[in-house]
Design goal:
About 40% of the residues lie in helices and about 20% in strands. The protein is α+β, with helices and mostly antiparallel strands. Helix 6 (about 120-130) crosses helix 7 (about 135-150).
Amino acid sequence: MIDLPKKDVRAEGSGKADKSPFSFRVRVGEHEVEICGERQEVLQTIEKLPELMKDVSEAFKNIRVKASVISVSAPKETEKAEKRGIPLPYPQISKAESCSKAILKLLESDWGRWRPRTLRELSEALEANAIHYPISTISGVLNRLVKKGCIRRWKTEEGYVYILAEKEEA
């Protein structure tokens, strides 16, 4: 029998994560089990893991597996982005004179207007256009653009998000 440390994994996540794809793979000795599904379903199955491992042991009696690995995986960023409906790839922009102009070009594109963007998304979009600036530079430029009133910023679960400020008509 396998004695796993008791830990309430459910307390760590929010209710939102319960619907996202989740997988758990464990190899003990010569036996491996991978459990995939919604997070809550996987956690319920993990509670039954000692019983399942007995059945797996019987099923694998005559089969030899060489490696021994324990891994837990979550969806990749691109998978998460596609599920949220984020259009990939990033927009193509022409080379800009400065970091601030490049950021404004991104936010003026359909991609930038579609929804507010995080610092990481803006950084990745710049890199996709072969425009390379350190995150600290991009962050500083975003702060200056917010102070100038060119863009708006607010905090979300993912961090701050940025979008073009609406221009007031006189």
